[in-house]
Amino acid sequence: MYNPSNIALCVRFNSSNSKITKSTNTTHKVSTPPPAPPASTPPLPESFRKTIPGETEQLNTIRSRLPTFPLRNKSTLLPKPGVPTSANTRLRTMMEILDKKRAPELIYEAEPHQTYFLICGALAVIFTVYGLTFIDWGFRTVWELYLEDNDLTMLVGRFGMCLAITGVALGVLWMALSFPTRLIRRIWIIPGKQRGQKFVKFTTHPMLPNRATPVYTVPLENLVRSHKSKVFTRNGIYGTLDRSTFFFLLKEKEKKFGYWIVDRNGWFWGDGRVFDILFGKESIEEASKGQSYDEKLKEASEKLKEERQKLKDEEGPMWQVKTTKKMIKADAKKMMEFISEAKKGSNNELPPKDK
Question: Could you count the other beta carbons within 10 Å of the beta carbon of residue 255?
């Protein structure tokens, strides 16, 4: 039956549903976040990231030690962003920047030491075969000689000689296996709590693969470079390459055999002069000259020749005799002054005489 009240109720219900739908749609539009803007700089590719010092993980797997052919002898590490270089910064300014660091600063990273592993592995195989072959042939020959002459004294001497030669092979084998453990991979400078105190943290290779990376921390004052060697050679990107040597050594003062090997073909903070100051204990003025040990000897020899020529011009042909005479007089005068001062001191120490 037709009822006007039912029609009014339906119209009211439909109008309320349309309001709910509109409000729901409006709320949904407001809560939707705006689309993210496109990235201004795309992420760096993995191949490029590997060329930045300190950005890659140090692996100790067998695969990381195997060389890739053809072998490369050029540096693959790019200069680290934010690190000063000698092209745009003076040496004194570079040292001031490094001294102001309050957090560990990476100052060196080596290229992959795959060539070193290849050489050491080849030496290990050669001397292993040599040692086993000599043991088999040497001891069998010694025993056959003993059966012939039946001389116990000669048997002991021959056995001792065989053991000595075998020990040489085993020693070279051990050196080939332990050599990679002395190769430095990364070096950090760590500021100490006290002013002017610094520490050096560095990592090396484990002897066996798939082991943890060894980490060492040494006071900077205890880690020195040989006084005859020079890190800065003016060759290469960082001025560290040398035709005669592929590496330089760092020595711990407190250890008898505390040598560590640093490959010259790596990334260096600043350039090689920074390392001459840190580990060679050179002054900024001395390191800025970049003179090698031979150049210093040559300069000292030329200075000595100039002084001799000056004395020869002043004293004449008998300059050596005259110079020696002056030196003897000066030494005699100093000796007489020393004796007179000693006598005065002894007289003052004597007790007063009894009257």
Answer: 10
